[in-house]
Each structure stands twice: as C-alpha cells, then as structure tokens.
Write a structure and sequence with these properties.
The protein is an alpha/beta fold. The chain contains 14 helices and 15 strands. The strands form three sheets. A six-stranded parallel beta sheet has the order 5-6-4-7-8-9, with helices on both faces. A six-stranded mixed beta sheet has the order 10-11-15-12-13-14, with helices on both faces. The mean pLDDT is 93.
C-alpha cells in the first residue's frame, strides 16, 4: 500500500498517516486527505513502522556517515537492483519521518531494503536504527558535519555507531558492518560493531570517490554479484537531485552539488572536479553548523582547490570573506546577484564549474542562472 504523510502528494487510494511535527499537526489535514480520496490510518508512524519491520524478511542495509550517504545509497541501489528487488530511501528522506516511510514501502517481494539514516544530534541514529533494525550497516566516514551540535569528532563517531544494535530474537540474518579504514575512530567503530554482534569488513582508498567505489564493490560482492555486474550497476547509477549532477550545457560542464555542504562533502566534490577535464571554476557558499571550527574548515578548502587545479574561485557568505586564497584568483560576494553576474561573465567554452554550498545558501540559484545563460 502507498502511505503518505503529505496531503500535497496524495493520490486516490493512498493511506494518510496524520503525523505531528514541531510546527504542524497532521490531523488538521485529514479532511483534505479524505477529499483527495485517501484512506486514513491514524497511528503513530514510528511505532507502526517498527511493528511492520518485524514482518519483513529482506536484508536491510543502513547507510550513515558524515558525508556521502545519499551517493552511496543511490550507488548501491543501482548495483543491487540489477539482480534483486530493492527498495531505497527516496531523495533525502533520512529522518524520523522518512525512515519509517521507507520501511513501509517494502513488502514480501523485497529482497534488499536500503535505508539512509541522518542525524544532527546524539541518540537520533539510535532512534532510526530501532525502527529500521539494519542487518548491514555502512558508515561512509566520520567528519566535521554537525560538529557545532555534537562538539567533537569523537562524539560524532559515537553517534554514528548507534546504528549497531544487538539483535532481537527474531533477527537471524548475518550482521555485517562496512567500515572505512581511512575514517577517524575506525578502531572504535569496529569495537562498537563487534560488541553488537556485527562482523566488520573494511574498505578504503586514497580519495573519497575511490572509497565510495570500493565500498560499493565490497557490498556488491557480498551479495553475490560479479565485478561485471557491479560495473553494469555503475552505468545505471543516477544521483539524487542536486547531488553532484553533471550538466552538459553547450560547451560548459556544470557540476551541481548544491543540496548541502560540509568539509567532507566539499573534499569529495573537489576530488570529483579534479577528475573532470577542462578549466576548473569553483563557486562556493558558506558551510554551516561548524561552530568554532568554521574558520579553519573554510580555509582548509583552499589547498583542496589547489590540488583540484581550480583556476578561479568565487565565495558567497561571511565565512568565505575571511579566508586567505593562497594565490588562487579569488573573489568574494555577500549576495547572489553580483556573484551570478560575475560567474556568467567568467565562464568560457571548455570550462567545468562546480557549484556547492549549504542548503540555506541557495546555491541552486547559481546553477539555474547558468542553465538559462547556456541553454
């Protein structure tokens, strides 16, 4: 059955669960749901999903980490769906509402369920894992994301390992943890996994794109796929919206990675840019929720940009106004319109433009302007 918590997306015959959030009460929208032809399921979404999860016999892969969760989820779906019936988290529905809805999309025909689990604070992964009960857990990396909320890398590592829960009596499938050997606190992650009854398997690589690929191969092989099967899956891979989308607009390549930004994601994006032929332009908005680490985190991007052979760099927001560009041609802006006009005047045939920034920086407006200018 198709379940919705948003009357704006309801189709006739859907079930509507009226959830309550900080600023809304779903029961206020029950008349709208009925008018649109929905049936009402007035239950607690999280508890209902927990009960439903017990009925599923599929493998559940929980994907978490400071960066790369959505990319890995989409990669795994592309690879594993070549042989299996796979259900995955859609877009970024990785919170207390999205995880239960993902669970409820699976049924008796599902072989593998891929659940992305996000967090901003302690015990949030624990709550999501108790709904999803993952049999396999992938931790992409431990980085600086949300360090303002958690205070330290050690606290972030501890929060991510909340995904390792001891098995309940009805959980009998093998339990495997996929851990990044380059990630800080890798040994701690393994200890937490072992304590919960998971067998740890390692992936690595010099750069983040290579780490993602190696993790995908490791998991694909564990599910019986050949390397040829996995390569065919990569050919099917389609990223979620604003997640390193590669646009070819006229003679220009635009890399749209504007969904969000944090230091680990910024490094990944620049390592992808490094692999793309052409003159490299970098357009960045502030990275947020970094607390006292913000100054250093933004400055750290400069050597990464140098390594990616960035020819011109444009920054938007107060944090980028305080960096030392260390020789890279650099211009700083406080508002979007002057930035957009300057970028449009700079792009030339053969350029590759990477656009990235935290969601609230609205860097997708730069991408939209490039699209209108180039197409």
């Amino acid at each position: 059955m198709n379940i919705s918590i948003d009357t704006r997306t309801i189709q006739p015959g859907d079930w509507f669960i009226p959830v309550k959030g900080e600023h809304f009460d779903g029961r206020d929208f029950i008349p709208d749901a009925i008018q649109k032809g929905a049936k009402i399921l007035d239950v607690d979404l999280q508890q209902y999903a927990k009960s439903y999860r017990k009925k599923l016999t599929c493998h559940v892969i929980g994907v978490t980490g400071s960066a790369g969760k959505t990319t890995m989820k989409d990669m795994l779906y592309a690879i594993l769906s070549g042989r299996y019936q796979v259900v995955k988290t859609e877009e970024n529905q990785n919170n207390q509402f999205g995880v239960p809805l993902t669970i409820l999309k699976a049924d008796a025909t599902t072989d593998i369920l891929i659940v992305e689990m996000g967090m901003r604070g302690i015990k949030e992964i624990d709550a999501l894992a108790r709904i999803a009960r993952p049999s396999h857990v992938l931790i992409t990396t431990i980085g600086t994301t949300h360090i303002e909320c958690l205070g330290s890398h050690a606290a972030i590592a501890k929060a991510k390992t909340e995904a390792f829960l001891k098995p309940l009596p009805w959980e009998t499938t093998p339990r495997i943890a996929y851990l990044n050997e380059q990630s800080p606190f890798a040994g701690y992650q393994m200890k937490r996994a072992t304590r919960a009854g998971f067998v740890s398997k390692w992936f690595g690589g010099q750069e983040k794109p290579e780490q993602n690929i190696n993790a995908a191969y490791l998991i694909g092989r564990d599910f019986g796929l050949s390397d040829a099967d996995i390569r065919a899956g990569f050919e099917r891979y389609t990223p979620s919206s604003h997640r390193m989308i590669r646009h070819h607009w006229g003679p220009i390549v635009v890399l749209d990675d504007t969904y969000n930004a944090n230091p680990d994601g910024m490094l990944y994006a620049l390592q992808q840019l490094k692999r793309t032929p052409g003159r490299h332009l970098l357009v960045v908005g502030d990275m947020l929720e970094l607390g006292t680490h913000a100054q250093d985190a933004h400055q750290d991007v400069v050597p990464w940009a140098i390594d990616a052979s960035v020819s011109v760099m444009f920054g938007l927001g107060p944090h980028w106004g305080r960096i030392n560009p260390q020789g890279i041609p650099y211009e700083h802006f406080q508002t979007h319109n002057p930035l957009i006009q300057r970028v449009l005047s700079e792009v030339k045939p053969g350029d590759v433009v990477l656009v990235k920034g935290s969601r609230s920086m609205k860097m997708e407006t730069v991408v939209d302007a490039l699209r209108q200018h180039l197409t």
